Amino acid sequence: MGRVTQRRKVHKFVLDGSPQALEFPVRHREDVLAVEEPLEIRLDQLSFSVTMRTPGNDFDLVAGFLVSEGVIWEPEQLVSLRFCAGEDEDGVQTFNVVEAQLRPDVVRPDTGRNVFTSSSCGICGTDSIDAVHKSSHFSPAADPLNVPVETLAALPDRLREAQAVFDATGGVHAAGLFRIGDDGSAELLCLREDVGRHNAVDKVVGWALREGLLPLRGTVLQVSGRASFELVQKAALAGIPVLAAVSAPSSLAVELAAASGMTLAGFSRGTTLNVYAGHERISLPAAVG
Fold first, then answer.
1. Could you say which of 4, 13, 105, 205 has the lowest number of CB atoms within 10 Å?
2. Can you name the CATH fold of 140-283?
């Protein structure tokens, strides 16, 4: 898997009480780790942000990050992406700096990241939600998508089956974008893995932008972790009507989903799930309804 994973020698301690454990309580082996490296994002040669990520699909990550910051929303606004020169102590290209060239008419952020994107920035929830609405060019509220509950409940298993990096390391998050058909089926359009759950979502959104698919009407974004305010924000800015997570949402995430007209599901575990906003999009099986 190249720079995505790295092998390291470890000392494994076995305390299960077995005869083998008593004779060899410490074992030497190799473990596979998910790589984490910094990525500097530059806009027209000026530094914009630095994020810690798993290398791979970096152009998607940068494109999706710019969408989630409200900087761009159309592929034509992104003129080019390129890796900048950068070497480690051994003179090897690090590929850890990406420069994005924007169309001249695109409004550039003043300095650094827009503060409303951070869930720990200290501003109140109302201001955070208003900032997202001011930056959004798509409305999930108008999406007529209907998702059978059994289809939605099955997506975590579909996501898990496609997680190659997680299988190797056990140390990455995943985001999967599914297109819901008229017959209620779910087609996996894109899956991305990363040590950061926000990065995984940005990589999916960036892929969609570069493919000319925004807004992402008729889709479900399934994520492997919890549903934070930032994940709902990223989904809303991409026009995604449904976000589902295997763990819990935060209170502000639920507020933003409701205010944006999104459907937000949490604790999706195959046989049960909780819908915190937009339950109207979820349909019951005919035998139950």
1. 105
2. Cytidine Deaminase; domain 2 (3.40.140)
The domain 37-135 having CATH identifier 3.10.20.10: the answer here is: yes
Say how far apart CA 141 and CA 80 lie, in whole Å.
Answer: 32
Residue type, 207: W
Structure letter (DSSP) for residue 225: S
User: What digits encode the pLDDT tens for the residues 237-254?
Assistant: 999 999 999 999 999 999
What is the chain's length? 289
Question: pTM of the full predicted structure?
Answer: 0.87
Provide the 10 A C-beta neighbour count for residue 9. Answer: 8
pLDDT tens, 128-149? 788 777 678 999 999 999 999 9
Of the listed 84, 121, 124, 190, which one is catalytic? 121
Are 221 and 177 a contacting pair, CB within 8 Å? yes
Phi, psi of 113 (to 5 degrees): -75, 150
H/E stretch holding 229 = helix 229-237
> Residues of CATH 3.40.140.10 domain(s) within the chain?
140-283
User: Which helix (DSSP H) or strand (DSSP E) does residue 32 occupy?
Assistant: strand 26-34
Looking at the chain, the domain(s) classified CATH 3.10.20.10 span: 37-135
Q: Is 190 a catalytic residue?
A: no
